[in-house]
Amino acid sequence: MKIVLLGPPGAGKGTQAKSICNRYNIPHISTGDIFRKNMSENTPLGIEARKHIDKGYLVPDDITINMVYERLQAEDCKDGYLLDGFPRTVKQAEALERFLKEKNESLTVALLIQVPREFIIERMTGRRVCPACGASYHTKFNMPIIAGKCDICGSDIIQRKDDTEETVRERLDVYKAQTQPLIDFYEDRNVLSKVDGTKAINEVFESICNILGEKI
Ligand code: ADP
Ligand code: ADP
Ligand code: ZN
Asked: Which domains occur in the chain, in start order?
């Protein structure tokens, strides 16, 4: 099972990724989480990534592609994986395609979670995340059981620095210009499936499971 999750910031990719990876027992590869881990540890990659991420811009393709290539070579990716937040540009999608081709493999599905723009600002400004395990919460739509604490690992949850209204607007423009073309890219390759991301979290997950059930 090799899954790509597509959709604008705030579509619910991270939220659904956690449930999908739990159910299908595959690693959740979130490029955003990998960048944030590097930023918190002040690695050279993290220092470079921060310059772009805090403004809402994409990290350059060559850096991102190398990082993902390395991650996909790991032992735990042998039987499949879920990519959340990658690819985000046509160049990245082509790189992933080359990587798969070299191994005679192919993508199981590119899942597009569709959410119109008017939902996004409220979702993003109310988002809280767990810096330790990457879980996503919301002040209104998905509150943790104990206020301020991650349900999964108990860490204090925080607001991301790039989840301000201004940065979210920038990220939405970047999505439209650079990531939206991937919808056609995967449609042309007959691997795109769409789900309505405006429904409740568990309903979206149900639609995703129905799609995945047909693919395996
Ligand atoms: P969200 O889930 O809110 O869309 P992510 O956590 O996936 O955001 O990513 C946060 C930021 O990390 C992005 O705004 C971008 O700056 C950077 N980033 C993540 N993935 C990529 C990628 N594939 N290519 C370039 N930049 C990326
Ligand atoms: P992405 O990874 O696509 O940027 P997240 O999974 O982090 O998105 O979700 C963005 C915010 O919206 C989070 O605060 C999350 O709790 C909330 N959220 C996710 N899915 C839904 C949904 N179906 N309905 C309402 N809120 C949602
Ligand atoms: Zn946690």
From this structure: 2-27+74-117+165-211 (3.40.50.300)
> What are the two backbone dihedrals, phi and then psi, of residue 52, each rounded to the nearest 5 degrees?
-90, -45
Q: Which ligand is nearest to the CA of 179?
A: 1
Residue 71 has pLDDT above 80, yes or no: yes
The pocket around ligand 1, CB under 6 angstroms, is made up of 9, 13-14, 31-32, 35, 52-53, 56-59, 64, 85-86, 88, 92, 171
Q: Report CA torsion sign: 9, 14, 15, 21.
A: positive
Residue 215 has pLDDT above 90, yes or no: no
List the one residue out of 13, 214, 189 whose CA is nearest residue 101: 189
Residues with CB under 5 A from ligand 3 (ion): 130, 132-133, 135, 150, 152-153, 155
pTM over 0.90: yes
- What spacing in Å lies between the alpha carbon of 154 and ligand 2's midpoint? 20
Instruction: Write the CB contacts of 143 (distance below 8 Å, at least 6 apart in sequence).
Output: 137
What is the distance between the alpha carbons of residues 197 and 181, in angstroms, rounded to a whole number?
19
- Rounded CA-CA distance 127/201 in Å is 14
The best mutation among 35, 115, 169 to test binding of ligand 1, ranked by most ligand atoms within 8 Å of the C-beta, falls on: 35
